[in-house]
Amino acid sequence: MSELLFVAVPGGPADAGDVILRVVVVPRLRADRSMPLAEHGLADWPAHLDQHLPVHLRVGDQVQTVTAQRVSPADSQLWQQFFGPGTLVDPWQHRGYDPPQVRPSTAHASKIITTYEQSTQSVAASGDLADPGTQDALAGHLAGWHDPAADPEPAPLPPPGPRPWRDPDFHRTVSLLREHPAVLRALGLILELRLPSAVLADTTSGTAALVRIGWEPPAGLPSLVAPWTRYEFDGRHFLPWSAGTVRNGMLDLAGATAATADSRSAWQVAAVDVDGGVGRLRDTARALLDRTPGAGAGTGEPPVSLPALRTAGLQLLRPGRLDDMAAHTGNGAKFAADGALAGAELTAAELMLGYRMDVLPKGATRWLSLCRREATYRINGTVVGAGPEEGHVKANAAVADPATGALHADEVVTRWDGWSLSVPRPALDGRGGRPRGTRKLPLPYDFDWTYQLPEGSLPALRFNHTYQLRVRVADLAGGGLGPDDRPVVDPCATDLVTYTRYEPIAAPAVALPPRQQALLDEWTSRPAPGPGHPLGPGGAADLLVIRSDRGLTAAQFAQAHPGYPANDSRLLLPPGVSFALAEQHGVLDGADEQTWQLASQAMASGLPDPASAGPTLHLRPGPGALTEPRTARPAWQGHWPQLQPHLLLLADGTGADGGLPALVPADGQVRVELAPAQEAYLEVSSHLRDDYLDHFAIKQWLPAGAEPAAIGGRHPLATPARVVRLVHAVRRPLRDPAGTITPLRTAEGQTDAVLQAQLDVDTASTLRLDIAAEWTEVTDDQPRTVTQPAVASVVLDRGPVAVPALRHDFGDTRHREVRYQLTAVSRFRQLFDAADDEEDFRARTTLPAVTVPSTARPVPPLVRSVLPAFRWEGTELPPGWQQLTRVRRGGRLRIELGRPWYTTGAGEALGVLLETGDDPPAGQAPPAPVRLTRLGRDPIWAGQYPVPVPPVDAFTAKTAPSEVRTLPGGPPVRVVPHGVWFHEGRCYADVEVTGAGSYSPFARLVVARYQHHSLPGLELSDPVTTEAVQLLPDRTVHVQRTATDVTVTLSGPGPAGPRLNRVDVLLEHRAGGAGGGDLTDLRQPPGDDQAWVRLPGSTAHGSLGEPLRVTLPDLPGALRLYLKEVEQIRPADDPLPAGLGGTDAELAERTVFVDVIALS
Fold it and tell me: Which of 396, 423, 535, 634 lies 20 to 30 Å from 411 when distance is taken between CA atoms?
């Protein structure tokens, strides 16, 4: 059934012996369908109201009824304006809501403050944001913001179903007007009744006193439901009974303090933008997970830092507000049930419409309301009412998620940012559009209102000022205590709270000079900008570059290369702030025209930050440059806000101060001087005016002794820096690379080598060092040059050369002599024109050849043959000679070897193996005997025995000194290396053994393939033993010639018996003269005058060492001597057996020496 709720609301302070009791009329019209309002009897509600209404007062079981005079008007014409004949009424039903999801703003504020307080102290401890310890600490402080379990959000609630929009009916219109009590009073839906205060009970002792309306509605109207309202009255204030968070008509804020890291009070005051801070911290923590480990200085990534916070005004926080809002929604559902209000007793907790905040600046004697306003309401163009009133802030406001319909709220009950809480801010920026103070509801009638702020009614919200806050309760009828109804020293007020700024001072803006900016704007505005950046190659706003080369200063290079645009200067502009921050610093407090213009400028484009005294320029130390930072703090020139920019200029280093980077501030200019290849990072921040640190929240977090850094612009959380990179780029590295590279091989079979590099490189100008290699690959065939252009490439950091372990893979185990080439590549290639010749950016050095040892044991040599060999000395006949000596050196063996050779690489030799001649160490048994090289006497001849083990010096054809090496699985041996040579597709080695001391001894050689440049123990192959071969003896021929005869002496070792060797000297003649062939015609008689013919009787025979004389005939043609030595194998008295065939000479003699000497 339909009903009219008459809710009694005590009206506040007593006046002249009377009190006001307000009645809130809430129609609940029910039917089985929508119907016109007139069918409920409410076509003209004001006409039904009496001027006097009965009021029931109850104390205990005693009920007293008094008549109260209605003092508020009710306008029937106004009723018709709102609710004309066409007004429909939908059946009333309770529109309930689930409790909203409430963000834990208080806990977040505490966590934000904890994070920044700890971070501030971590940064102050090191004084350097990029310090690894500081970076680890900041990462740790941020880590908790990424953990989803750190601050769990309430679980999402099921979304309600969508509600299609429709024009509001009677119930909805009344609900919308609930926020405008003045209009409801004019409509008669809020009644004001005057009662004598004497009828009220004094409740100061806790007496339970209640009040309700006892009016009987006229016939045709819905029935009346009037719940009891418990009140409190102390003789001066008539208020709803205190309950929940309400005490004596006020929110009980006693003990409320500024939010800190460990605040525990039931109410707190915070100035930081909590939601914005949480969002930025979580974004930063997520981004931290994507960073390169160890990022920071030298990695290209900025160091870890905390995001900037924002000041949000003074916010009143209610920890656990979810419980308050859940209780509120629960009460709404409870009292919506049929009959629930008939016997209910309402208190201040149920009769609350909203809050009215007051502010008391420290030192003031009067609380100032933030909700006062001048209001004007209009319906269909007619003014409903105008005059002063107090608005309110909704007590349990929530926001519906447009996607899900779920309600969301936070623990910020109300917030003062320096303006009224009930009047919108004016549009001071001069932009057009609808006035911000006007609101229009989507109603079937034209209802609007205008709010204006009473002049001089607001306190000023300023940094470093202290305030107290209190909150008065606006009751359901729009009443409640006024700002002057409470004492100045109010026990329900907060503690003193100092308002401070959370935004850091921004770094000065780094801008291009006007001409360069114009060029850049024009270039970027092109549809396809293309090449030719106005700032030059690699150009960027935060990068300044000058260029030079070997032998050219920066000025000379610029003159020689005019195509490079200037990129050596920037403007440092004062940092700007918003209107709100400028105002809260107190710089817009004037009332003159100039202040108004500044305010307009601030609204449009901002103003210079009044806290910034000037730029702080901090030249950071770095490898190869400064070891200690350099800092300059020039002041802004001019008077605020007309501040002039500073010019930042990059210049060529003068060489002063040891060539280190220099920071030179001058009048309106700061010059940074860099020597060639120097690079610097300039941190540009702001330093504070002397008395402004008190304006900032960070001051309370700074540890002892850290204030100078914050004031001086060197605390990154108070004065974050903008980093500008300055580069003196050089085209070619400043000097050629040098050093040594030693290839190391340590394991058998290893095909690569570890390169042990000791390098001297100018890392300031060299970004990369490329290592190439070249060597001669020696094989049986033609040696060839091998080049590897990319053995390794090493990226170098500035500072001492640090080369990682490098490997050079050869693909086999062979020995080589390698020449490494070092190529230094300029660090600054990207800052020069891409079309420049790449060789202009390189410096090269070829290092001396180094040895890469073989890592494989040689395979045994294949000995194809061993033949005696000799060599001649003095074979040329000088013109007109009279005496001649020439020598045939014997003692030589030619060993033909199977191919391939050089299987272990260059330098592979044939080693003749000898005993070492060393005694074994004391106490150690001699090694097992092995077969090694030996000499032996020819047994058919008498004579001296040879030395069985020839000494090393006897091997005069060796190609390298002998060495002691160990045979595979055997004892140490002495190796005498001999070179291997190639001729007509064959390879061979000549072994010469001198000083044998015996005639034609036998030599049995033991040889092995030998690689001197091998890993220890892998130099020798398995040994190979040759057949025993006789060594030819040395022979010396001495010839003395006269006009008539020739005397010949052949000398050298010979057998001592049984028969001596015979020497034959024969004279041969050729009738055809010289120039013919070498054949001798042995026929008798000879038949060829072009052949040599032996002259009978012109012979001589003897033995070694005996002079043999032959007379020279006087014959035309050519003469020559034929000299022969033969071994007489058979004794003279031992004739050959018959039947052997051949001549005695053929079977009993062996020729061991032959020489031919031309005489004419």
Answer: 423
Residues 560 and 683 in one domain: yes
Helix (H, G, I), strand (E, B) or coil at 393: strand
- Mean pLDDT for 253-276 is 93
One domain for residues 484 and 568: no
269-278, 470-479, 601-610, 812-821: range with lowest mean pLDDT: 601-610
For residue 456, the tally of other CB atoms under 10 A from its CB is 6
Model pLDDT, residue 261: 85
Comparing CA positions, the residue from 974, 915, 912 lying closest to residue 948 is 915
At position 507, the amino acid (one-letter code) is A
Q: What is the pLDDT of residue 432?
A: 41
Nearest residue to 1095 via CA among 1076, 1109, 1108, 1082: 1082
Query: 456 and 334, same structural domain?
Result: yes
In terms of residue numbers, what domain contains 939? 863-919+929-1030
3-state secondary structure 86-138: CCEECCCCCCCCCCCEEECHHHHHHHHHHHHHHHHHHHHHHCCCCCHHHHHHH
Rounded to an integer, what distance in angstroms lies between the CA atom of residue 733 and that of residue 756? 23
Give the Cα separation of 253 and 265 in Å (integer): 9
- Strand pairing report for 1035-1041 and 1029-1030: unpaired
- Give the residue carrying structure tokens 């070498």: 1078
- Confidence check: pLDDT of 1107 > 90: yes
Burial category of 609 from C-beta neighbours within 10 Å (exposed 0-12, middle 13-18, buried 19 and up)? buried
Query: Is the model's pLDDT at 437 over the cut of 50?
Result: no
pTM summary value:
0.76
pLDDT above 70 coverage of the chain, percent = 93
Q: Which candidate, 656, 716, 666, 664, places its Cα nearest to that of 686? A: 716
More confident residue, 563 or 1078: 563
Cα(928)–Cα(918) distance, rounded to whole angstroms? 14
631 three-state secondary structure: strand
Instruction: Give the pairing of strands 972-978 and 1002-1004.
Output: unpaired
**Claim to verify: residue 530 and residue 514 sit in the same structural domain:** yes
DSSP label at residue 1031:
P
Single-letter amino acid, residue 149? A
DSSP3 helix / strand / coil % (the chain, rounded to 5): 15, 35, 50
Is position 547 within any domain? yes
Query: In this structure, are 1042 and 1026 located in the same domain?
Result: no
Cα separation, 1115 vs 134, whole angstroms: 114
- At which residue do the structure tokens 């070792």 appear? 1053
* Number of folded domains that form the chain: 5
Alpha-carbon separation of residue 1132 from 382, 666, 940, 1059, 1129 (angstroms): 169, 121, 15, 8, 9
Report if residue 637 sits inside a domain.
yes
- CA 125 – CA 882 distance, rounded (Å): 104
Mean pLDDT is lowest, of 52-61, 537-546, 904-913, 1069-1078, for 1069-1078
Q: Specify whether 331 is located in the same domain as 402.
A: yes
